[in-house]
Amino acid sequence: MKEQLYTIPVNEALEKDCECPVCAMRHELEKASLEYTLGPSYMEDDVRMVTDRTGFCATHAKELYRQQNRLGLALILKTHMDRTIKELEHLSKGPVLGGGLFKKKSDAPVVEYIKKLNCSCFVCERVEAVFKRYIATIFYLYEKESDFRQKLAASKGFCNEHYALLYEQAPQYLTGKNLTEFIEMINEVYLTNMKRVRDDLEWFTDKFDYRNADAPWKNSKDALPRTILKTNGVRVE
User: For the segment 127-164, what is each residue's pLDDT rounded down to a tens digit?
Assistant: First the structure.
């Protein structure tokens, strides 16, 4: 493959004891991207040009605030606001669109700009660009390395979102027997492990019955956060 491959983080995620290795890959990538954003890079002109344009989504703005580099974040947001103000000062002088029962409704330039701004995020863009290569690397390793196929088959499955992602993208990277076997494998891994977590969750609820007060918890103590990861791809701690 001409594009860069990320075999190390992909293999490391498969070696973790987690309910979705793809979630684990994305979590580590997001963590690294947040650190990069408030590292020395924020003083670089090419990075600052992008952060000025995109800003951050609500989720990552909150996460960046938790990084404790308040000065770095303030400097980034100040020049981002400078650009936003400049753009909106220009756009706000334009005509107001819409109005009237029979007129075609369309977003005013100001509204269109804000909507676009609300859908952009420096961290999201950085994560997505590399995450796509992670997914491509999964298929590359599956096709080339038998050890990787065994690790994938022995994993604890995937969350709903990433199971569907692998299923959907498999035909872009695999053909023939490899494609058929991959789909059969992820179906088996996904369903087997969804049932396992479902059974743990069921026993978790059964433990609240006084008749089971003295019964062992088995593997159900953390069944609820593991279920949320399976169903929603969200880590709760």
Answer: 999 999 999 999 999 999 999 999 999 999 999 999 99
Q: How far apart are CA 215 and CA 207, in angstroms?
A: 8
d(CA 235, CA 228): 7
C-alpha–C-alpha distance, residues 62 and 202, integer Å: 34
Q: Domain locations in the chain?
A: 1-144, 156-237
Residue found by looking up tokens 């590399």 in the block: 130
Determine which helix (DSSP H) or strand (DSSP E) holds 215, and give its type and residue range: none
CB 230 within 8 A of CB 194: yes
pLDDT grade for 104, boundaries at 50, 70 and 90: low
Angle at 233 between CA 228 and CA 237, to 5 degrees: 55
Amino acid letter, 122: F
Helix, strand, coil fractions of the chain, as percent rounded to 5: 70, 0, 30
In Å, what is the CA distance from 132 to each residue of 94, 126, 171? 39, 10, 15
Residues 163-209: tens digit of each pLDDT: 999 999 999 999 999 999 999 999 999 999 999 999 999 999 999 99
Burial of 48 (0-12, 13-18, 19+ CB in 10 A): middle
Give the DSSP H/E element, type plus range, for residue 60. Answer: helix 58-65
Copy the structure tokens of residue 209.
Answer: 């019955």
The Cβ-side half-sphere exposure at 16, using a 13 Å CA radius, reads: 18
